[in-house]
Structure formats: C-alpha cells, structure tokens
Write a structure and sequence with these properties.
The chain has helices spanning 13-23, 25-28, 32-48, 61-74, 119-127, 135-150, 156-177, 192-205, 207-213, 215-225, 240-248, 264-271, 273-287, 291-309, 385-394; strands at residues 6-7, 50-53, 88-92, 96-97, 104-105, 107-110, 114-118, 227-228, 236-237, 258-260, 313-317, 321-326, 335-339, 343-350, 359-366, 371-378, 398-400. By secondary structure, it is α+β, with helices and mostly antiparallel strands. The two termini are 41 Å apart. The structure holds zinc ion.
Length: 405
Amino acid sequence: MEFRDYIQSHISDSTIKTELERSYPYYRHLTPELKQRFINRCSAFIELKKFAGRQGLVISDPVRIIITACAVQVTFGLDSFTLDTFEYVLVYPDVYESPATGQLHKGETSMNGFICFSWKHILEGIEDQHDNYNLGLHEWTHALRFNSIKYEVTDYFFDGYINKWIANAVHEFTRLKNGRQSIFRRYGATNIHEFFSVCIEHFFESPEEFRTKLPDLFNQTCILLNQVPAKEQSAQINVRNQLMELNNAEQKEDQPLYSLEASLYRTLMNFGSRIIYFGLVLFILLLQHNKAATILAFFLCLFAVFMINNEYFTIRFYANHIYLQKGFINSLSTQQTVNYYSLIKMEIYEGNNDEEHGFVFELKYYDGSRFIKRRAYSNSVRIPEEEIKTLMQQKNVTVLFPSFN
Ligand SMILES: [Zn+2]
C-alpha cells in the first residue's frame, strides 16, 4: 500500500537525545552505553520509515521520535529491529474511524505494510507508566509478530522461539479466556496476538508484578525479547543465554519416565535380507578354511550391523530432558541431551528409512546460538503416545503426531 504526503528524513542525534531525555522514561533510566545504543537505533529507524499525518496532525520531530522510541524499546534486545514490513506510520490526532472495520480505533497494525496511531493515546500510554496500557508498545508488538509471519528481514531468534513462547503463554491465555482471575486485562483474551501485545505492555509497565505472579512466562518473555525490563532503573539486554543456562542447569534424574530402546533384535530385523547375505558370505569363507578372509568377513559383518544400528536411536524421556543415543551400545555411540527448555517442537510419525515398522522423531531445539533440527529413528514397535503428548504439553513443547489423527 502507498500513502502520499509523508515525511522521511534524518533527525540529528542531539535532537533525538534531547527529546528522549525530556519525555521518554524508559530511555532516561538506561545506562550511558545503552542510551547511545537507543539513540543509534532510533536514528536508523526514523530514516527508514515514512511518517504521514492524518486529519490535520502535523508530523513534528517529537512525533517521529516518540513513536520510534516505542518500537526501539520492544526490540531493544533483538539483533534485528527495523520491522521492514512496516514502511508507513500514519498518525491521527485522536481516535479515528478505521476504513477497514468502520469502528473507532486508537491504533492498528496492518499486514499491508502500515501502522496507525492516535497521537493522543501514544502520549497517554507513556504518561502513566503503571496502568499497563501503552498504545505504542502494543501496536509495535503486533508489528514485530507480523513481521515474523510475513518473513521479511526478521530477528532470527524471535522467529525461531515465538512458538515456544506461545506454548508457555497458552496456559494464561486460556485462563483469561475462561474468565479466570489474571494480572492481564480482559482484552488479551481476544486472540493470541492481542494476548501477546497486552503481555508486553504489562512486561514493561509492571515487571515486578509479572515476575512475581507468573515467573515462568516472565522468564520466557525475557528470553524471547533478550531483555529484562526494570522500573526506576536501567533495562538489561543480552540476557538470553544466561537465562537459558540457568533453566538448563536443573538436576538430571536417574530414572527415565519413558524409554524407547534401540534393541539388537529389532535392529537385526530392520537389517532384513542383508544380514542373510552377510551370513552366507561368512559361511562360505568358513568352509574354505581361509583364516584371514574369515576374520575380515566377520569384522565386515559386525561393521555392517553396527552401521545399520547407528541409524536407530535409544530415546529416553526424563522429567527435565530428552536423552538420545545412537544404537544400543552405550559407550560406542553418540549421546545427546536436549533440555525441554531448549526444545521448541517435537514431531512424531510412523515409518522410517527401512522397510520395517518404526517411528521418526523430529526435534527442533536451540543449542545456545542456532536452532537445530534433528531426526531420530526409533525401532520400537509401540510408543506411549498419550503419555508423551501430556509430558510435552506440560513442558511447553509443541508436539505433533500427524499420523495418529
Ligand atoms: Zn492489538
């Protein structure tokens, strides 16, 4: 979509600085280092966006700086902050009738590439720092989410982790929808997008209450946005890995809840006709009394069985992590532990890469710097699907069983 009569130009760092000091509390509390980062980001953001006044509103420098500051605050811990889907920022003096819905709006974030604000309500949101209403943060949070959905240049971590956040948030979202007592206002029950925006308003305006009442969701929100907000003092950024390590440091238990072993018998069965072929080769060589060749063939057979065995995994579900081990010989195989805090998604379906029956486990997890997809084959005949489903839901892991539907 295109709009006319917009302003797109540079604003000097000193003008931005003066305005933020005067009217933006979040900025005022930042450490000197973070203040510089904040100004740099505002400056870059302003140059990218086309601001257009509506119903007589004049786009002044403070209008551009304050609206931009709201976006920079939400994305302050993220690597990517330009929200490229949103080229236009339309600013109305007060509530306005939306052409899309015909109703009065204070703000609107459109997938068509623009975002709208009532200037009056932007100011009201910033003025009262404790009422958990903040229009600027609310709409830019939608923009952050929609930017990720549209797959414009978007933040790598945010994009990969948002589903983990949603899996956590769905508990409180459901409570709110069912009319239960919640720290969040009722509007958050509209849908998960509104819940996300309402949650971020609360995150910045009442961080202490949020942390005390919903510690897990608060923690997840800090990880997602890579920042810890604070009232009356500086927000902290680049906190993500530290928070994730704390989560992952939980003690490892001895007894698995469910264990899918890669058994020797099933492995040999999956090896199928090839084992007969190797057996035949071995038998012929034995008859020939050729010692060297017999030994060679024997090790070839062992090696072949071991290689095939390596396609299969022992998969154990513990209370806090999943353990994967290639094959059934503990000391000879690759082992890996994936903590539920790092595990985003698990997909389980029937079938494997051999003719025999089995299950494929596809895991997506975060290893501290990248999102990794891993595929593990289990040659178990049956798996406790309901138990696994329940456990994954408890651990806020998105679980998909496409073949069981
Ligand atoms: Zn909204």
